[in-house]
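In keeping with the milestone schedule agreed at the kick-off meeting, the structural modelling team has produced records for the first pair of proteins. Each record is given below as a sequence line and a structure-token line. The laboratory manager (R.T.) confirmed that both were archived under the project's standard naming scheme.
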Amino acid sequence: MIEIRSEFCPQNHPCPVMRICPEGAISQQGYGAPIIDHEKCTGCRKCSRACSTFEWVENAKAV
């Protein structure tokens, strides 16, 4: 599961990683930290390869 490490996100611009996600599972409200829709996320990890704010966590539970 992908988790957002918001403390490392500058949160001052549109998140460029939203365009990378093939499932459209990443959204953002204003310039806030990105939000992952875990229902849509397939775990391809393209986001975590593109930005260190996105972290793959094994056996994590969605909140």
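The second protein of the pair:
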Amino acid sequence: MKASSTIENMNLEKRLGMKIRQWQLVSVVVGCLLLLGGCRAKTATGTPPKTAPTTFTRTVTWHTKTDRQNQEKLAHFIQKKMLTKQGIYTNFVDTKNRQTGVATGHELLSESAGMWLQYLAESHQYRAFRQFYRATVTTFDDSGQFSYRYDPRNKKRFAVNATLDDLRIIRALNLYDAQTKTNHYRQAAANHFAALKVGSLKAGKLYDYYDPQTKQAAKTTSLAYFDFKTLKYYEQGTRAGRRAYDEQLKVVHGGYLGNVFPLYASSFSWGDLTYATKNLNTSEALEVLLHLAEIGQLKATSRTWLAQQVRAHKLYNGYSTAGSVTNSGQSTANYALAAMVFATANDQANYRAAMRLVWEGQVTGNSPIQGGIGDAKTQQSYSYSNLTALNAAGM
């Protein structure tokens, strides 16, 4: 990204791109913070699907030699500067004071864990995968679902999960088995999915989060949380599951904002069956497009709009539901997400155009964050940006 907007980009990624949304915690009181090893509900047990998880593997890749080289530098930075025995730092720079609603500094997110597991499976680092998954369970597991956030300084974890982050970890476990042609994690993945069905995926309705201690779920869901490929894998085996999946698709399709601005509403309320009219976070909006692309349901209008923004270098961080720009900052993570959408849609030209913009955000000079995505001057480097770019580079 251009140097003049770098700090703004990093601040935006901190606020919006890391799945640490303050609105997600509106109904969660301070009492939701639990000491590691506190009381827990009974863990659910699931039945693995009968079909092998081959749907999670890719047969075509579009990355270039340059992408691979830059990915190696990025992975080296993450391994040496961000990765710990418990997880991955939210930011390279630690913070003195923690914030209730936003993860900062050296706090850890289950989101980052899932993205790193995905990378390890894709890059055939199976021993490292097994070690990191064990660490992920130790750090984040709570009654079979994963706490979305853990603070190693205070040894505290939030009681609520973030459903998309759980689905991402479940997907990574299945990807490992598909890549290795084993059943090593089939049961563990099924158990984690069963835990979601107890709370944040109850009766086929997907909710943003669930607290297993208070047994309270969110009243809304972000449309970005519908990881259709993973949902279909677990729901296709029964009539009730297929019906639930069809309803989930209807929820997302119903949020389409129209051909003039071909993105989707940010969230859906299960209480009054309405879509939010608030401004869009572009990272979440692109997650919706990616999940649709993965099941062959990305609209041509959406793909064309995204290509236009990438080609013009005008993919902004926020939009109104009418399509006007509400945040003119730009984020490396958003260009990485765009690249993933294009790769999934087999659009090589636009994938490479997006990846060229991704690498503009990589620090190449002598710096403590050399190889990472961030601001060399302030040394701000966020896990979401780094890991999104890392996984986009392997497509």
